[in-house]
Amino acid sequence: MLRISLTMIVRNEAATLPRALASVADLVDEIVVVDTGSDDGTRQIAAAARDRHGGPAKVCDVRWCDDFSAARNESLRQATGDWVFWLDADDWLDEPNRRALAELLAGLGDENIVYQMLHTSPAAADGGHPASVARQDRLFRNLPGVGWQGRVHEQVVPSVLRSSGTVRPTSIAILHSGYEDAAVRQQKLARNLRLLEMDHGDRPDDPYVLFYLGMTLAMSGRVAEAIGHLQRSRELLPPRSRFLPRLFLLLADCWRLMGEADRALQICREGLAAFPEDGEISRLASELTSGNRC
Hints:
The chain is an alpha/beta fold. The chain is about 45% helix and about 20% strand.
């Protein structure tokens, strides 16, 4: 029978880690937690976790080096399962999605597939972060050559595609609470921007780095700077990239915020020509067409 490893990287997550572990520990055969320097009891919480066989979590310490991929790749080195499912400490699954995940895990074979799930964040009460849903690559085979890349907004799909794997979407939703607190949100944005600028310095023509750098600049209020990075990402992304619908939406919204409603509408129309079923682009296009410029 194929085994499932849960992998996590954590630091000072004592407030949310118990909920994350409780939501999935009984569905996996192994729990691997990489701690990057906690001093709040996180490590003790992780060590007390048990997988579905009653086995203790494997907890290891690594020095934080401004690189999420380095920490995630350490968790892969420690994982012995045939498949890897990952969570952050501020993620969790409710009961309907737990059942859906259990069904998916029970049917896994030896195929080389990355399963995407819906990363779902509620709107922040202070209005500083809207509700969002984004596809993330959460479950994949633990194969030689498969690993993470990128200091932040790290990705595993490029390595899976290089190993002749495929990507498959699911409707499983992972709930996330990491952007509700304004102070925490600003700390994360500042950290992400710093790491993305480092990646951009190393790989100035990487379309994924450009996408996330543009997105983060826009979220930080630096809209004019964001536009250039998003436009360059659009030029470099593959024609049917899963990033493109969100890129069209981000780019159009940036032009809207710059007061260029006609230009924003043109971007929406180009996006809908390529992705006619995208509801978010269609919604923004409708707002712009009806004269809602706010």
